[in-house]
């Protein structure tokens, strides 16, 4: 059995053991994402960065996350149709989703966000990386993603964040204030 399937079954084996654990998994997989967005906005609003720095952080983070999730992920899904694990494997399903599984849009979006924020504030970047990991691993435990979906989405998010930061710096160099 491929490592991807073995890891899916190992992690998904945590589901269905306890109603409290199942609720925590569903919370992390479905709702922690909203808390991450609110935390990012709170970080930006309450930070002591200049207005220009805050705009740059917001721009790099928003563009990285949006381009990765709604650009790169959707292009890949247009050409590659990987069904969700619950439609192909015997899993304990805690959630459902109708979109293709590969790559994970949640992983792409939130790892792009964590990477972009980490460029400017290491502590907040680490916090968001931990939260992104909780969101995405919970989605494997819930039976709606394979581990390789998460890994691919995370790598895409990280790569796009680096590319957006690179281009933002080039633009900033040409138009200093």
Structure description:
This protein has 7 helices and no strands. The mean pLDDT is 94. The relative contact order is 0.18. The chain has 177 residues and is mainly α. The chain has one domain (3-9, 20-172). It has helices at residues 3-12, 19-30, 32-46, 51-79, 105-120, 122-141, 147-174.
Task: Provide a quick synopsis of the model.
By secondary structure, the chain is an all-alpha fold. It contains seven helices and no strands.
Features:
7 helices; globular; 73% helix; single chain; mainly alpha
Secondary structure elements and pairings:
Layout: H1 3-12, H2 19-30, H3 32-46, H4 51-79, H5 105-120, H6 122-141, H7 147-174
Helix pairs in contact: 2-6, 3-6, 4-5, 4-7, 5-6, 5-7
Helix content: over 70%
Could you say which structural class the secondary elements and strand pairing correspond to? mainly alpha
Unreliable parts: none
The helix count comes to 7
* H/E element sequence: HHHHHHH
Number of strands: 0
**Percent in strands:** under 5%
Total of domains: 1
Through-space gap between termini:
57 Å
Overall geometry: globular
